[in-house]
Design goal:
This protein is of the alpha/beta class. The chain has nine helices and five strands; from the N terminus they run H-H-H-H-E-H-E-H-E-H-E-H-E-H. Strands 2-1-3-4-5 form a five-stranded parallel sheet, sandwiched between helices. Helix 1 packs antiparallel against helix 2 and helix 3 packs antiparallel against helix 4. The radius of gyration is 18 Å and the shape is globular. The chain starts with a helix and ends with a helix. The structure holds cobalamin (B12). The site of cobalamin has 39 residues, from helix 3, helix 4, helix 5, strand 3 and strand 4.
Length: 221
């Protein structure tokens, strides 16, 4: 039953059809299907397919734009559901999220932020195309525990490195942990640039932040 729904979700992204994507998300909510399952098993495979087709020049930029619009229509329904999963517990820590300089991909970064918020963290989203200086200013001003830098382009991954270098120069680390993610980002890159952590998806990002902040409490206390 939900397999058919997931398949239709995937297709709505490939078709770049926001109305269908939104309606299917609403159906999932009505049927009690978890928002994360809908995102990961329904919509994200559609995005991956579009990305692959774009790389092989079977689809073009307008198709990718349309797919993103459809994804955002679905997320508009599913994000409030994700937030509802959270409770009113006190903040587990302050997180600053943003997409690296020169990069305007926002869907994954926003999803990570939403899920962290649903798990009790206070999340400040700086948006896309965020410079290292802006990350540092926000980390200082908001007394962030963790800063998350997303990059979806191989050409913008270098700005993740710049954030880490600036944080080190300004003595912001190790108090502030810098974690990275995004489709092209690997554990190897994370180790190479000495990031404090890397996660391949939003669920693992929550686990990573929880682990980092637990370690911090132990160190401090
Ligand atoms: C949608 C999309 C777009 C949309 C973005 C719309 C938006 N508002 O976000 C638009 C059309 C604008 C776009 C533009 C471009 N895109 Co684009 N895009 C995509 C696409 C199809 C999907 C991305 C997405 O949203 N995925 C769904 C989310 C849920 O997944 P995600 O982002 O990976 O996030 C998850 C994890 O990575 C992780 N994560 C993400 N961030 C973080 C951060 C932290 C801290 C952590 C811990 C984890 C984490 O958790 C997330 C949730 O599970 C990808 C293909 C792909 N497979 O990634 C191409 C892709 C990323 N784009 C690509 C390209 C080339 C471009 C353009 C250069 C195209 C052009 N010629 O103009 C421009 C660049 C614009 C710019 N300056 O940024 C290439 C990049 C190739 C490369 N090697 O660098 C890809 C891979 C497509 C391809 N196969 O060629 N794109």
């Amino acid at each position: 039953m939900s397999e058919e729904l997931f398949q239709a979700m995937r297709q709505s992204i490939i078709d770049g059809a926001p109305d269908a994507a939104r309606n299917l998300a609403e159906t999932a909510v009505q049927q009690g299907i978890g928002p994360l399952a809908a995102i990961h098993d329904g919509y994200v495979p559609g995005m991956s397919h579009v990305g692959e087709q774009f790389a092989q020049r079977h689809l073009f930029l307008p198709d990718m734009v349309a797919a993103a619009e459809a994804m955002k229509a679905a997320m508009a329904v599913l994000e409030p559901e994700l937030k509802r999963l959270g409770t009113d517990r006190p903040s587990a820590g302050t997180i600053v999220m943003g997409t690296a300089k020169g990069d305007i991909h926002e869907i994954g970064k926003t999803l990570v932020g939403t899920l962290l918020g649903a798990n009790g963290f206070t999340v400040h989203d700086l948006g896309v195309d965020v410079s290292a200086e802006k990350f540092a200013a926000a980390a200082r001003e908001l007394r962030a525990d963790v800063v998350g830098v997303s990059a979806l382009l191989t050409t913008t991954m270098k700005w993740q490195k710049s954030v880490i270098e600036l944080f080190d120069r300004e003595g912001l680390r190790p108090q502030v942990r810098v974690i990275i993610g995004g489709a092209p980002v690997t554990r190897q890159w994370s180790e190479e640039i000495r990031a404090d952590g890397f996660a391949k998806d939003a669920v693992s990002a929550v686990g990573l932040v929880q682990k980092l902040l637990q370690a911090k409490t132990v160190e401090v206390g």
